[in-house]
From TrEMBL:
Protein name: Siderophore-interacting protein
PROSITE patterns: FAD_FR (PS51384)
Single GO molecular function: oxidoreductase activity
Residue ranges of every copy of the FAD-binding FR-type domain listed in the record: 1-120
Cited InterPro entries: FAD-bd_FR_type, FNR_nucleotide-bd, Riboflavin_synthase-like_b-brl, SIP_FAD-bd, SIP_fam, SIP_rossman_dom
Amino acid sequence: MRRITLAGDGLAEFTPVAPDQQVKLFFARDGGVPEVPDPPATLDDVGSWYQRYLAMPDERRPWLRTYSIRRHRPAAREVDVDFVLHGDGAHSGPAARWAASARPGDVVGLYGPSVSHLRTPGRHDWKLFAGDETALPAIGAWLESLGPDERAVVVAEVAGPAEEQRLESAADVTVVWRHRGSVAAGRSSALIDAVRSLDFQDGEPFAWVAGEASAVRAVRRHLVDERGLDRRSVAFAGYWRVDRTHDDASTAEELADHAEEAAAAG
């Protein structure tokens, strides 16, 4: 992973909305300054704003990707964004390629922030965070927001020991790392196996699950169907898909997940 600090006067009005907040990042296709439509004036204008973005000619329309904010320093007008890199570059998308070669002075567009989930914690006794590398920025930010009287358990899947990160928190936190070794990202059962084998703490948990979409779905089903958690106590987000790109259409399962989350939020 590579941490990039984004800075500029445009972040003067950046207003945090949640520990697991995310932003839309825009990357110019020619490596220069991305051309981004003026931001929507209200939430009701988001749909038409996105249509204006899609209507841009292909050669001018910047790539659009969603990323979590790892840390925000308002006084310095800075945010940190962690990018997962791909060793050989064969499976790198435009964001990872940009991050791998980014230098001071490079420009991206930023729109946001927004929360990465549609369910917020109700009454609960402890938090469970589960995810792969792509979930670590949000998990790290959320842990740093917890107070000393709170409890949390983190189950994280990474390639190996070298990919483990130091996660800091004032809360009572237990971190369980699981390594997938030579198994390709998105093909491992390490995350769901670790959650299945986890001894739950006393009390009612609130679970937050993010990462590769099919792995997130498996963990969520386990928590609801086998552990008996209320669906409203499980926030989930598929950050990426092993067989599909960001630009590919949503699958039927993903559309059903989105509809359920929207209904719960409403």
